[in-house]
């Protein structure tokens, strides 16, 4: 006798209702693995859908519904659902324990909602690997809201209203690999801000591009046992960058800032990184020439650096012997 395990993929469309328990009809389309066409089915109530979601290998998507909020135990003790998506559902609030005991969840997508506050107790102690909270209105994340997630590998928080990155976040997240804070309003990265990200068995990918960062403390990145594979700080307002900030970083992007030069040994900062990660800054010409020469030695051609370098050659030095270029 052979036991065949069947995977089910669900696309869920929920009738408009602000109370999940009172949804009159839920239209569900699902596919058995490797089969076509789709099979569609109506569920008469939300509890009926909850029961159906206990079947193995289920992916659920709920789209374009004005739910307003997810209360306590809305999706609790789900045993097999691996991926759960709520997109464009006008969710303003998620109460603690909304996903209580749902240990099968590996991916939760809450993109394009209206969340402003992320409370403690929503995702703690779940086994989520990928969490997408992008394109909301988040401005407050409570201290332990993103802690105690043993399997978390990727967190997406792009396009929110986060102005401060708190050092208390991500406590007990040993597998975390990628953090995306792109397009928020963060202004600085102080010393010790990444203290909970050390001792990872792999390098981290950190995305802080398109913020308003004017300052990165040397102790923010120069931490023992902190390894950063990718650090994207492009499209900010940085006026200073120094060698010590680059020691633990393998791939750096600080283009589109306000840097006039990079302090210390430029080779430590640039390494073998493409010069595209350093372009579009108002460098002093002497600094620009040195950066270009490092790129030349690495056989890395940059049209932007070449154009600015040729422009520098045509300029006459001022009384200090220095001159700079504009973007």
From TrEMBL:
<dbReference type="InterPro" id="IPR032675">
    <property type="entry name" value="LRR_dom_sf"/>
</dbReference>
<protein>
    <submittedName>
        <fullName>Uncharacterized protein</fullName>
    </submittedName>
</protein>
<dbReference type="InterPro" id="IPR026906">
    <property type="entry name" value="LRR_5"/>
</dbReference>
<keyword id="KW-0732">Signal</keyword>
<feature type="signal peptide">
    <location>
        <begin position="1"/>
        <end position="17"/>
    </location>
</feature>
<dbReference type="Pfam" id="PF13306">
    <property type="entry name" value="LRR_5"/>
</dbReference>
<keyword id="KW-0433">Leucine-rich repeat</keyword>
<keyword id="KW-0677">Repeat</keyword>
């Amino acid at each position: 006798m052979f036991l065949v395990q069947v995977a089910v993929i669900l696309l869920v469309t929920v009738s408009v209702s602000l109370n999940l328990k009172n949804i009159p009809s839920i239209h569900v389309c699902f596919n058995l693995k490797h089969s076509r066409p789709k099979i569609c089915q109506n569920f008469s109530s939300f509890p009926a859908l909850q029961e159906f979601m206990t079947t193995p290998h289920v992916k659920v998507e709920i789209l374009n519904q004005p739910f307003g909020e997810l209360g306590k135990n809305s999706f609790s003790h789900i045993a097999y659902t691996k991926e759960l998506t709520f997109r464009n559902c006008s969710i303003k609030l998620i109460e603690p324990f909304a996903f209580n005991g749902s240990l099968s969840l590996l991916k939760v997508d809450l993109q394009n909602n209206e969340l402003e506050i992320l409370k403690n107790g929503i995702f703690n102690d779940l086994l989520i690997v990928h969490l997408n909270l992008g394109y909301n209105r988040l401005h407050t994340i409570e201290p332990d809201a993103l802690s105690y997630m043993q399997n978390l590998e990727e967190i997406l928080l792009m396009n929110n209203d986060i102005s401060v990155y708190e050092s208390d976040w991500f406590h007990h997240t040993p597998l975390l690999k990628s953090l995306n804070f792109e397009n928020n309003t963060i202004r600085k990265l102080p010393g010790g801000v990444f203290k909970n990200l050390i001792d990872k068995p792999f390098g981290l990918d950190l995305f802080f591009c398109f913020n308003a960062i004017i300052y990165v403390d040397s102790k923010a990145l120069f931490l023992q046992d902190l390894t950063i594979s990718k650090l994207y700080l492009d499209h900010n307002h940085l006026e200073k960058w120094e060698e010590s900030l680059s020691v633990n970083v393998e791939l750096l992007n600080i283009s589109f800032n306000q840097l006039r030069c990079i302090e210390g040994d430029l080779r430590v900062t640039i390494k073998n990184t493409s010069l595209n990660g350093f372009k579009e800054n108002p460098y002093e010409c002497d600094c620009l020439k040195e950066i270009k020469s490092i790129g030349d030695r690495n056989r890395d051609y940059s049209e932007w650096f070449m154009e600015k370098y040729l422009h520098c050659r045509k300029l006459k030095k001022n009384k200090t012997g220095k001159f700079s270029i504009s973007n």
